[in-house]
Amino acid sequence: MDVVLSQIVKRFGPLAANDDVTMRFAPGTIHGLLGENGAGKSTLMRVLCGVLAPDGGEVVVNGRACPGLTPEGAGALGIGMLSQDPLDFPPLPVWENFALGGGPVLSRSQAKARLAAVCARMGFVLPPDAPVSRLTVAERQQLELARLFDRDVRLLILDEPTTGISPAQKEALFGVLRAFVADGERVVALVTHKLAEAKELCDTVSVLRQGRLVGSFAAPLSTTAILGAMFGAEAACAVGAVPPRPAPVVGGEALLRVTDAVIADEKIVLQPLSVAIRPGEIVGLAGISGGGQEAFLRGLAGIAPVVAGSLAVAGRELAGKPATRFLNAAVHYLPASRLEEGLFPGLTLLDHVRLAFPERRAEARAIFAERCVGRFRLTNLPEAKAARLSGGNQQRLLLSLVPDDTRLLLADNPTRGLDAASIAQIWDHFRERAAAGAAVVFFSEDLDELLAHAGRVLVFFNRALVADLKAGIFDAACVGDLMTGRTVPGQAVA
Amino acid sequence: MTGRTSSLARAGFSLALALCVTLAIVAAAGAPPLTTLAVMLDGGLGSGQAVLRTLSALVPLLLCGAALCVTFAANLWNIGVEGQITLGAVCCVWFLRDLGLAGLVPPFLAVPGALAASMVGGAAWALLSGVLRTHGRVHEIFSGLGLNFVAMGVSLWLILGPWKRPGMASMSGTEPLPAALWLPALGGRPMSLWGLILAVAAFVLVAWVLNRTFFGLTLSAVRQNAMAAERLGLRPKRRMLAAMALGGALAGLAGGVLVAGLYHRLIPSISGNYGYTAIMAVLLASGSLRFLPLACLFFAVLTVGSIQLPLALSLDSSLAGVVQGVLVLTLFAARRLWPAGNTGSTGGTRNRGSAA
Amino acid sequence: MSLDYLTALIAAVLFAAAPLILAALGETISERAGVINLSLDGTVLFAAMVAFAAARATDNPWLGLAAGGLAGAGIAAVLGVFGLLLGASELAVGFVLTLFCRELAYFMGHGQARQPGPDLGALNLPFLSDLPLFGPAIFRQSPVVLLSLVAVGLVWFFLMRTRAGLVVRAVGEAPAAAVARGLAVTRTQFLCCLAGGALGGLAGGLYSLSVKPGWGHPQGCEGAGWIALAIVIFGGWKPVRVALGALFFAAIQVAGIALQDVLPGLSGTLFQIAPFPVMILTLLVVNLRRSAAFREAARRVPLLGRLVPRTAGGAPGAIVGALDKGF
């Protein structure tokens, strides 16, 4: 299958998400689409599979232009997409998800037979009657792949497929993709922001920056050239620089002491766990979806109740106390979905300052100028509505609302969806906080990022804390194995 | 000022469309459409007496509208306004009967005390629904609606049971209270100036609280994002309960004014649909405090005017509700067809999945 | 308690439950597709008036019932146009519609009030009606009971065992995913909204043509739609459990009437309102049972563990939290 995107333009209001992009997906290749968050990769792929209608340009499949492409039309042509968050129906069982394949709905017997056939061919193990909500992210990906393979998809698009899966699962996925294109006819389009993945897997790579195609490369791929294209020549070296790894903190009184605590979140209840965190530490939480690391973070924040055992911050017992007591103990939490959980979309930035510092609300303007603009370089007007902020500015606003005397800062995926400059700023800020004596605990779905910035890693698997690793003794493979339960911890626990 | 012209155009369109639909409905019911409308307008505005009746219907509508603004500000569907009015009325009658008549309170305190009691009653009834929401996860639409029926049952039970008229229980209500325990009326007419003053004062108070105070800001924070409010330590549950209590107190006051200023006794369904009409008025004003008094006034004219229909044309008086419903629906349609600046709060409530 | 009395009680409960079952099933279909139809109470009342008027005009109660169903679908169509096509808030429109339909029913039905009219009569199927206990209660009684029980089976089969039902459930669980798989989301939701409204309309017809025959101000079925809405939550959006919930509420109503004979001192109005506090209490119990706090308590007190719902259950994905969004 030979697909050409020709001079695609897609605008959202004044913003051009894709501006005159042309690229070819040649048969039998794995084609990487690289770029920062917000570069326009996902938009381009949605145009390709008919979810978005382009404002200009056309999609040409096997030499024929396809105007007015719809998701059904793209499906009929053999174009299928595995999106970043699995687009499936969690409460429905596996076979029902499979039956809703995109074409005519299959009957129960048909669906089960064909699912079994595809699984046997690809080496997947998927229980047909289990609800999809019980599957891991990797299994949900496999289910989506099985559905697409069953429909004989010719062009397979994958959007950031390695987020939330372990290195070993990643290798398995890459093997499947290589086998998929081995017939020299089918095509894979891999959307990613990770250069290492593209280098490992792709035959050709296109780089997008700010909606425009800024470079195309064929294997062997050169790191510096691609980085230069992704970030602009001058920024490449800054981004490429390895941040200073924080040294592990030893000795001193613990700031946070968790003893045999049972944390019960809405969906999951964690096994009893004990851990102590000292001031100045930057602790990363590793785990795959359902491992319990998010629940742990919410438990530390007082959002998920600690129903047994003890949780003390600076000697103050907080287990079972309401979230306001955690705030009073200078514990603050940065949610992953910033606009949905952290901000008030219709209120102005100034109102956010007033609400966050109620006792100093008369001086809100001064606080805004000093903290938001001065310290966090927020570029918006104080009268702007929070809904208008970009992802990076949302995180800047949230950070500027966290008081200076915070002792325990908790962050769930603090850099998700941000551009490189914002990401660098956030890690710098966390290091400053830690140097000033606060402890930072964060979770990131991106294992490489997590290992680069954490001075200590707590690994979660199957609702339990399975390993507590100090800096220097962990690497991606060992943490990946721990968080998917491939190795049983023993000697690793400090 | 495109915003103003477009909102005027929308209002004009919805009024015209609503008029057409209403005329069609009236014609379908086999009545002369234009005569019917004329009778309604005449009944609501045609004479001095009619205007006074309209004003006295405006009082509970304004109070309930203000009550609903407070609760909508905290994203609560206070459907239980009817019940809160009823409970306010019950508490007011209780205070006047059992304390005022018995001489347990000095005469000059009887009526203010009774109004205070009605506010407490309404607030308590609203808090019941609020606590069910914040601590029992029962949505206030269901609890409010259920409690409306319960409040009606309570008032019926009192009228037919413990508070029945000497000798006979009657659906016409309890024994009327002596004139000393009434809100002073306006020259002997069925209209109390004090009620109107109270309603306007309550309305101004609510506008001030919502727009000018920190409490108002926290309420809109809770409406926008309860989870974020929780993260900032704003205690959204307490704010919701406070909004519920304030709203309930205002609705209860409406019940108190109905007793002390108009009926002077407890009658069955004393809330007289004012609660539901006020919800319609708030929806018509799309939650804007500026347009709410106008919407309330218009609905008061309709409500009072329709009382003439059974006598004049032997039609059911529920035509008022029909017109109100049609008007709100056509306004919804107009607002979606020509979206203007400040429709953000009403906007599409959920992502329907296209191009997520 | 004699067998005859028990049979009579069962018959009375089934009879009172029939319209509730239909209304709640209709709302179940609608909500399973992701559309909350808050206009149900007004729909039932308005359809009751239409059904009665049509039955009088044609002198055929079955035609009247069909007219009621059509009226219900018509109101649902208004909701669909506003909510699905114009993108207005379903909740606000539904609520306005419920108030509007109530007033419209009384206005248009003014001429029908306290008039005699046809009703659906009674079945008497040979052999079947001689079965013990349930025979007379189902087959020697108003056809509405049989109708409602058949509807439970049909709706269950449709939603759980047909491909169209699978599409409905998929659309209601995750509209975005359904779009990505090429399912016609808006069309499915609109059709389900119509079907749900039609069932609500039939429920209204059952009231005015059989269960609370005739038309008046107030009609005896006021508030029934709200009870049906609560029953859907109570039944966890599952057709069979929803029907059981309707039977439970009907049993409360019947018990109220039966107790009235035993305790004449208590006023009849109190029994009329009894379902509403029960509605609030059941919602309280159902929701608390699903809460994390209760699950935790159940972990420590094994006896409570039996009460924890086995499946996560809960609302279809598309309407989770919809009620909390305001308007």
Please report the number of helical segments of chain B: 14
What is the number of strand segments of chain C? 0
The CATH C-level name of chain C is Mainly Alpha
> Could you give the distance between the termini of chain C?
52 Å
General form of chain C: globular
Largest sheet of chain B: none
Q: What oligomeric state do these chains adopt?
A: heterotrimer
Residue share in helix of chain C: over 70%
Strand content bin of chain C:
under 5%
Can you summarize the main beta sheet of chain C?
none
Organism (chain A): Solidesulfovibrio aerotolerans
Protein name (chain A): ATP-binding cassette domain-containing protein
Keywords (chain A): ATP-binding, Nucleotide-binding
GO molecular function, one term (chain A): ATP hydrolysis activity
Walk me through what this model shows:
Chain C: It holds the Pfam family BPD_transp_2. Chain C: It is found in: Cell membrane. Chain C: The chain crosses the membrane at residues 33-55, 62-86, 138-159, 190-209, 215-235, 242-259, 265-286. Chain C: Keywords: Cell membrane, Membrane, Transmembrane, Transmembrane helix. The complex is a heterotrimer of chains A (494), B (356) and C (327). Chain A has helices at residues 41-48, 71-77, 94-99, 108-122, 137-150, 167-181, 195-201, 223-231, 233-240, 293-301, 323-328, 338-342, 349-356, 364-375, 391-401, 420-435, 447-453, 476-483; strands spanning 3-12, 15-25, 30-34, 56-61, 64-65, 79-82, 155-159, 187-192, 204-209, 212-218, 256-263, 273-277, 282-286, 306-313, 316-317, 331-334, 408-412, 439-443, 456-461, 464-470. By secondary structure, chain A is α/β, with parallel strands linked by helices. Chain A has 3 domains: 3-240, Rossmann fold, CATH 3.40.50.300; 256-343 and 404-483, P-loop containing nucleotide triphosphate hydrolases (Rossmann fold), CATH 3.40.50.300; 345-388, no CATH class. Chain B has a domain at 60-272. Chain B has helices at residues 2-28, 33-45, 48-73, 81-101, 107-136, 140-160, 193-212, 214-224, 226-231, 236-263, 274-284, 292-306, 309-313, 319-337. Chain B is globular and about 60 Å long. Chain C has 327 residues and is an all-alpha fold. Helices cover 71% and strands 0% of the residues of chain C. Chain C is built from 15 helices and no strands. Chains B and C meet through helix 6, helix 11 and helix 14 of B and helix 3, helix 4, helix 8, helix 10 and helix 12 of C.
